[in-house]
Amino acid sequence: PTPATDGFGGFGGFDQSSPPQPPGELFAAAVPPAASSLSAVPSSFAAADDDFGDFGDFSSVQTSSITMPPVTMPPVSMTGFAADEDDGFGSFATPAAPPAPVPAAPAASAGLQALQQLLMQAERFSEALACRQHVEGIAQVTVQKQAYEQAKLNDDLEEAIHIKNVVLPRLRQQVQPDEVVAGWQQPSGDQTLAGMCTAVEQALGGADAAPFTATFSRDLKALAVTNLEQAAIEHDKARAARQLLLELPAAEQVKRMAQLHQLVQTVGEQMRLAVRALEALPPDLDVADKERALHSPRVKELLLQLAELRKLGCILASSREWHASFFAASATTPLGPDVRASAAQVRAELTQLLQKSAVLANQEEPDDEEDEMLSCARYMAQECPMAQRCALSLLPLQGKEFPELPATVEWEGKRFHAPYANLWAHCVSKSPP
Predict the structure, then answer these.
(1) 17, 57, 167, 204: which could form a disulfide with 80 (CB 3.0–4.6 Å)?
(2) Residues in domain Synergin gamma C-terminal (predicted)?
């Protein structure tokens, strides 16, 4: 973070002797100063060498079975998908004959569905979901190839191109390679919620592990029956939380939570400071002078910064609420009840301050738009070590998985999202956390 240069002049409270300034370019990449047993089921789906690329099929699947009771898998085989040789749509006018339906393969599908059930019983919900999507993808390839052929017979070039360039590539992403399918069949460590709770209790002790066990107490097997996608998300959240707890000793959790809590409070303090600055306009200014002052570039820049500051505060509050729900009890208790303030409550307060600033500046009030990023929901299930997280917000660093996150900066060997490092340096301490 670089020192802020955007003082607010005669609006009060922002000179060199005043409290720290709100950070400038908040989103700029500033440089900081100084245990189940799953036996083998078919996994070798021969690639269909056609103009749709490698979607795979069941043509080379060998007869096999799941020996783990109580499920017995029937013999598996499936006629391979017919490869389409026409890549140029040149035969629209003279079709030879309507395409023959591709025979179904209930035995093969049942085999993978049995595997999916075993994965669900082992609480490997993400793999069970991928297995289901894999089966659906292969089945849909058959359907869409027929639709592609029919579109050519109907001289519907637009539909044929859409299937070829949009639908089938999307299905390719659902169909997993052989090594992934084989991995579903291998035993895995205890991935159950009960096993995770035991591991956390052994690492932290029963009292400090209590928030984790309370947060992740839902019956995911029952949930998976009706909503496998949500069960997979909840399970992934538990895995990510467990990894963080096992990596960070309780004393380190205390430190991290205190820093995160301090940043949330700092955002509120800075926004209230800006409101007071706008309220401190000399009362004897005439209307024209007041209008000129409020519509100056400095005030417009202040409002833009406050909008970004509100966004940062909402993200930090969401992260604080999430991590406080499972961090060691000793990490949150010393900080008092405020640390458990809901993200929705913080968002409402910051939004009110931003709207008040706009009114004082005679500017249009900003909309409180919904933003998925503000809730941090998609980051909660990301399992990654602290080395791949912002040392302040505790959220994953920017990367291929989350390109929308702020740029990463290093500060004395630690990595941060640039806005949070800037906020800390401007408003908390010139030394890194």
Answers:
(1) 57
(2) 291-433
